[in-house]
Amino acid sequence: MRVRLSGLFVLASVLALGAQGAAAPVRVKELAEVQGVRDNVLYGYGLVVGLAGTGDSERVFFTSQSISGMLGRLGIRIDPRDVRVRNVAAVMTTARLPSFSRAGTRIDVTVSSMGNARSLAGGVLLVTPLTGADGAVYALAQGPVQAGGYDVSAAGSRLQKNQPTSGTVPGGGTVERAVTPEIGTSAVVLGLRRPDFTTATRIAAAITTSVGEGSARALDPAAVEIKIPEEWKGRVPALLAQVEALEVDPDQRARIVVSERTGTIVAGQGVRIRAVAVAHGDLSISVLQTPYVAQPAPLSSGRTVTARTATVDAREGVKPAVALPSTSSVDELVKALNLLGVGARDLIAVLQAMKAAGAIDADVEVM
Fold it and tell me: For the chain, what is the domain count?
């Protein structure tokens, strides 16, 4: 057995540092959305039938009760304790209802098993009401389930791909109740997806230039208020379409995102480092186990046994301290970090230590 320990941290990692480039303008549509205009979540409980013996077992009693209740509504009376089927699975269905959805609009539905079903592949979702947080039914779902995976077994062997106990019903939901949120007639507020004072101010300035003086102002880093001019009264959707097409140079805080679980590092534009000296060493520990056989003494009552001996070897790499210069771009940041001569797994610990020392002008976010 061989274990490698970093002097600071060990992770199998991939380094993904973006190259420096000029900031590109982005449409307001990608940066903000009208407050009050949002998707609504729906959910429901249903049954998936037609499974090839991969459904819930009789131990999942609520599935048996659901089958009994469904058949009862069709005029067939059966005790839930007498239900013995493996072709049916109880599922939870979820969907997102877009704003301004009209009756008859088709939406996608996600289906997830609740019991001990092995797979939903090949099943059909029976008609399922989808309700909102207020308990009202907004859509009905039904259709064939696309699992996107499989789970097969034979003679004690088993093969599984992806997650076969959840799937989708593309276009399987039909909107039954229209959702039409009201848009203000005198003022509209845009909510920024990433709150930022600079971005909010630039959006307000772009709207003022396009619509007219005094038509927009930044309320806070997350909201921009648009006052509807008289010439746009009754044509608010057209005004919002014009505003969404405006292009703005967004700004955001410099950030380095580190995933300690996968070892991924992503550094965005604006990350800077100050002049700093870094010394990073690593420790390599090797544990070798050698089996041997121990024989008992002649004519004794002992027995032959096997045992192991372990040899432990520890080696610490010696690396000189490296002086990293100040940087002003991501390209220079990559070149400076490459001077350390360490792998990506050790670079995570180096970045965290540099942040603690105040040598990185960026937020280090650990996922």
Answer: 3
